[in-house]
Write a structure and sequence with these properties.
Elements (H helix, E strand, L loop, with lengths): L1 H17 L3 E6 L4 E6 L6 H35 L3 H10 L6 H4 L28 H5 L1 H9 L3 E12 L6 E13 L3 E4 L1 H4 L5 E6 L5 E3 L1 E6 L4 E5 L9 E2 L10 E6 L7 E12 L14 E4 L11 E3 L4 E11 L2 E6 H17 L8 E2 L2 E5 L2 H10 L10 E6 L4 H5 L6 E5 L2 E2 L3 H8 L5 E7 L3 E7 L2 E2 L2
Parallel strand pairs: 10-15
Antiparallel strand pairs: 1-2, 3-4, 3-6, 4-5, 5-9, 6-7, 8-9, 11-12, 11-14, 12-13, 13-16, 14-15, 15-16, 17-24, 18-19, 19-20, 20-21, 20-22, 22-23
Helix pairs in contact: 1-2
Length: 451
């Protein structure tokens, strides 16, 4: 014990003598040692002495650190006998250990949040494969398939010889548009089926008897309802912003093969029914796609890559050429049907007509018209009339083939869809017509009802 005290006193005395040229300040609260060199005005002789003192700086500092370590070590040993050295420790000035004055290094280790610093290193993660990164169609189908349904028409007048059950006369597709069991499909899937019993099969295998809620033959749309709640409904998008070349997925049950997926692109966004040879249809235009649509796909959704239905699969002309009803038109049908159901009836199927056949002006047609006839340079939208029914409201009002209609009731016309929308109202139509190259006329037409 005595040797430790003597060694401590000797170290302190040696440090004081070695640090004559330095000022040592020690903060007992923060346990820090600060070495501050004293400064004075320099002379020529001082410069020479300074160079000499620089050579002595390293031993001075190293001596200070060594002394501090010795004193600190002696003090830690004295703490074992607390009763004998309590007063000495309180009066003695202690120094930090040498380890506290030197920087320390630790090896880098992965730290898992919530597990502390002693957690084992994580195993290396496998990079995602191309299959998981680029199979966007599979991700899309997984998201939207629960809203698809399979519609089976049973003929109760004909029964199977072995089972005694009604035979299947036809089948189709549909998709859920209401969580309360409302299903949208094509009208030709569910109508004109005598003695029919409609069965709707969901993706989870459940089968319900469906009842026809509303039908519009001219638009080839119909709604069914099944006694089931909290169903996963299909998201309805917008067909007005669809672009040619856009990827689409056709879902349905072709040839009774339920849950069939085909892909393709949009070939044309506005194919008029007259080009398809369809008569008496109120759908202004169809979406053309090369996605495979065949018998049984009718009524299924045509969806975009956002998982939204942009059309209802309706017909196939030939492999690679199929057509779907735009979802915007179907949404209008659903809106009218809901309003009519609240009033206690179905959709009012009476239509107003003016007796014209029209073509929507697009940039290609406008450029062709400018090369053939003189038309205003600023024309960019409208419809051109190329046929008029004799004795119709349009013929009576004075419209002629070749007239270009740019506005109706002061609203710009961008296509045949705008004309059909205005015919749903009850007011007369005031048309802004371009005729005789650059002359503008205002012609009022009084539409008539088909009922």
């Amino acid at each position: 014990m005595l040797s430790r005290n003597l060694l401590s006193k000797f170290g302190q005395k040696h440090i004081r003598r070695s640090l004559v040229q330095c000022a040592v300040s020690y903060d007992t609260e923060s346990s820090e040692v600060v070495l501050k060199a004293t400064k004075s005005k320099k002379t020529d002789e001082d410069d020479k002495n300074e160079r000499t003192s620089r050579n002595r700086l390293f031993p001075v500092v190293s001596g200070a650190l060594l002394g501090a370590a010795i004193v600190s070590q002696a003090e830690s040993e004295d703490q074992n006998d607390e009763s004998d050295t309590k007063k000495k420790r309180t009066s003695r000035t202690s120094f930090p250990s040498l380890a506290s004055l030197l920087p320390t290094l630790s090896a880098a280790e992965p730290v898992v949040p919530g597990h502390g610093d002693k957690s084992p290193p994580l195993p290396p993660t496998k990079p995602p494969s191309r299959r998981s990164r680029f199979n966007f169609i599979a991700d899309l189908v997984e998201e939207t398939a629960p809203g698809l349904v399979y519609i089976e028409i049973k003929d109760t007048g004909v029964r199977d010889y072995f089972t005694g059950q009604p035979v299947t006369s036809s089948n189709g597709s549909g998709f859920i548009v209401g969580e309360d069991g409302l299903i949208l499909t094509n009208a030709h899937v569910v109508i004109n089926k005598p003695r029919a019993n409609i069965l709707v099969r969901l993706q989870d295998g459940r089968v319900f008897a469906g009842t026809i809620e509303d039908v519009d033959v001219k638009s080839d749309l119909a709604t069914l309802r099944i006694p089931c709640k909290n169903l996963p409904k299909m998201k309805l998008g917008s067909s007005s912003d669809v672009r040619p070349g856009e990827w689409v997925v056709a879902m349905g049950s072709p040839l009774a093969l339920s849950n069939t997926i085909t892909t393709g692109v949009v070939s044309n966004i506005a194919r008029p029914p007259d080009e398809l040879g369809l008569q008496g249809r109120d759908v202004p235009d169809y979406i053309q796609t090369d996605a495979a649509i065949t018998f049984g796909n009718s009524g299924g959704p045509l969806i975009n890559l956002d998982g939204e239905a942009i059309g209802i699969n309706s017909m196939k002309v030939t492999p690679g050429i199929s057509f779907a009803i735009p979802i915007d038109y179907a949404k209008e049908f659903l809106k009218k049907s809901a309003e009519a159901q609240k009033k206690g009836g179905g959709v009012d199927h009476s239509r107003r007509y003016i007796g014209i056949t029209m073509v929507t002006l697009n940039p290609q047609i406008v450029e062709e018209l400018k090369t053939r006839i003189q038309v205003p340079q600023n024309i960019s939208h409208g419809i051109i009339i190329y046929r008029i029914v004799l004795g119709s409201p349009a013929d009576t009002a004075g419209l002629k083939p070749g007239d270009i209609v740019t506005h109706i009731n002061g609203k710009p016309i961008h296509g045949s869809r705008d004309v059909y929308k205005l015919l749903e109202g009850g007011e007369d139509l005031n048309l802004t017509v371009i005729r005789d190259q650059t002359k503008f006329y205002q012609i009022t037409v009084h539409p008539e009802s088909t009922r």
